[in-house]
Amino acid sequence: MSTAPPLLLDLTGVARLAGVQRPVASMWRSRFASTPDPFPSAVTDVRGRPCFEAAQVADWLVRTAHGNNPEAREDAAAAAAPSDFSFSDASAVAELQALVALHAQTDDLDELTPSQIEEVAANVDPLDRVLRREISAHVDRGAPWLAYATRLVDAAYSPSAALTLIARRHAAANRAAGSAGPLLADAVALVVDATIALAGGDATVTLDAGDAILSSTLAGKLDDDVTIVLPTGADSRDVRRQLLVDGHWLADEAAPAARSVVVARVPSHRGEDVSAILRAVDDISLSLRDSDAAVVIGPARALVDPLAPTDERARADVLRSGRVRGIARLSTGLVDSAVRESLALWILTEPTVEVAPARRITAVADLTRVQLTAATRADLISDLMAGMGSGRDLRAHQFRFATFVRTTSLQARSGSLVASATRKPSAMTEEAAELPALLDIAAEAVRSDITPIEIAPDPHDVPRAMSVAELISAGHVRRVQGTRLDPVLLGSEGLVVVTASDLDQPASIGHTRVDQFAFATQHPSAQLTRPGDVIFRTSPTAAAWVDTDGSKVVAYPARVLRITAADPGGLVPEIVAADITGGPAGPGAWKRWTLRRVAPRTMAPLRQAIADIATARRDLEVRAASLTDYAALIVAGATSGAVTIIDLDHAADAADTQ
Question: Which residues neighbour 378 within 8 Å (Cβ) at sequence distance 6 or greater?
Fold first, then answer.
């Protein structure tokens, strides 16, 4: 066979191979251009991007000890590609996957003739469900990527890892995949944990038809007694290839099982809108028998967040089935090709027939701000499983994340399905019945610093937490845009300016100012803040601060949430700022922030108590700073010889003996 063409890298591939950031790879080209050992020259240009021969780059990295990968020569194929191959081409990617899968079934694939390769493919896949047609297409192409497939397996250390690498690079080359892109490992592990908890040891598990990594990972974790199948009629050739390489047996037609658990990713294809996602979930719900269950993972914008009226009715129809027993909103960054999107998990099981529909409950949890660690996953699944049990199970379980709402309330809800699901941190997770006693204990501990507030153990209802979008719609709050200030206007005198960076250190507020006349001239319609305004930002992290005085200029991209004085809806500015800080970040994230509320009669005394505590804290900080200064001066005096530190007890003892 002809000699394989060289593998090429663009600068992103160079960075990937070297284990550095992309700008570092660019810098190497210029910094070492005039040295005795310059960075290799580009050998071609692809769509305006310089490309380099992978072998030359790898040799340079190893020879000069640059980068963080001493095995660059061996790993080069994992970051590179032949000049005639594109990871954005789905057909080419399918052929490469088929070659890797066939490599796992035979030795020395790159030494076979094209006719021998087709013969091996026919023996491995006689029914053409996995790779036969892709191998034939590749042979018709001239079999140009045989050697590359072999090198890729060597670089990835196994055929299974090579298939995973191909899937990741295909997704990276097709960022338009959006929500349908590969799940990250934490999200995969959560779905696996949920499925195992539901399946037990004798169920049939129907794998996701479109996610090869998820399906194979799940197949590897299930007990041998569990039968795994793909949805009826699903082609799923990439899933079958991954299962073949990983050695998982897939049943063609499962015998009827007592229970079946369906695993589904939505959307299954890029470009599917919310309506298509909800139709897919509805189809899954309708396909379940009484004893069956399902685990669905998909975008929170469809499964949890506020929807347009038509889609809201469609989601309510699914909820009305009574099968949706657990709902969890997850954090962002769990999809390779949609890092800003939050996911959500739905658990569907048999409705509780012994409980009247009007009294049925659904477990909901909001993990938007919670990292999906192994402990988090275990606690969430434990919460959701306990929530599907009997009343005794509910009373016996200590819930970390989940709370419970009437299923009928979810069906009628127009906003977020997890709006009231955020559990309070630290002491606020205590049972409500214990809070009066805890408040008394805490008050006694600070009695020397502040007069404790008066409380009455009088349980009462509070308004449910709502998203910012819901609160704006209800008229309880409105958003005021910041002003785009010309930097030349800023100085040390005039109106106080609050910038987005000031929210990290509110003590710095007041250092930046703008001349009042110049500001009014250039921005005649701009609004100054009012007392009680909550100034916030969404990037790089969510942060907020309450302006208690008002009359400040808010510089864009910082913005203001202004509570409606005539109808605050139980919103307290200090609580709003606390709920925002550390919340989801990024464009549009503010609409989904969930804000806690209090009973109207509590608002004024609560704000006064918070203000008194803030004043006491500032006084203590001043006292602490004075003590620090005093200690520093004592040390300076003693070490310089300027003063002598006298031991008064020793001096008194000496005087007594005289």
Answer: 193
Q: Two tokens at 114?
A: 């094209």
Residue 561 within a domain: yes
- Backbone φ and ψ for 84, nearest 5 degrees, come out as -100, 15
> Would you give the distance in Å from CA 232 to the centre of its chain?
32
- 429: pLDDT confidence band, cut at 50, 70 and 90? very low
Q: Compute φ and ψ for 477, nearest 5 degrees.
A: -155, 155
Residues 149, 147: Cα–Cα separation, whole Å: 5
Confidence category of residue 162, pLDDT binned at 50, 70, 90:
very high
Indicate if the alpha-carbon torsion angle 90, 92, 94, 97 is positive or negative.
negative
- Residue 144, both tokens: 């140009």
pLDDT tens, residue by residue, 194-251: 999 998 767 899 999 888 999 999 999 988 778 899 888 788 899 999 999 998 888 8
- On whether both 241 and 370 belong to a single domain, the answer is yes
Measure CA of the first residue to CA of the last residue in the chain; give whole Å.
109
Task: Please write the tens of the pLDDT for every residue from 183-198.
Answer: 899 999 999 999 999 9
Inform me whether the pLDDT recorded for 128 exceeds 80.
yes
How big is the CA angle at 359 (ends 357 and 365), to the nearest 5 degrees?
Answer: 105
pLDDT band at 636 (very low <50, low <70, confident <90, very high): confident
Residues 90, 95, 96, 98, CA torsion sign: positive
122: Cα within 13 Å, side-chain hemisphere? 7
What is the average per-residue pLDDT within 452-458?
60
With a CB cutoff of 8 Å and minimum separation 6, the contacts of 81 are: 7, 8, 13, 87, 148
C-alpha to C-alpha distances, 11 to 32, 41, 365, 521, 589, nearest whole angstrom:
15, 12, 42, 48, 32
With vertex at residue 134, the alpha carbon angle to CA 133 and CA 136, rounded to the nearest 5 degrees, is 65
H-helix segments, 485-599: 516-522, 573-580
How many structural domains does the chain have? 5
User: What is the distance between the alpha carbons of residues 354 and 612, in angstroms, rounded to a whole number?
Assistant: 52
Residue 400 lies in a domain: no
Domain region containing 647: 602-658
Q: Is 443 exposed, middle or buried (0-12, 13-18, 19+ CB in 10 A)?
A: middle
Task: Please list, in sequence order, all residues whose beta carbon lies within 8 angstroms of the beta carbon of residue 566, skipping any fewer than 6 positions away.
Answer: none
Q: Are residues 217 and 171 in the same domain?
A: no
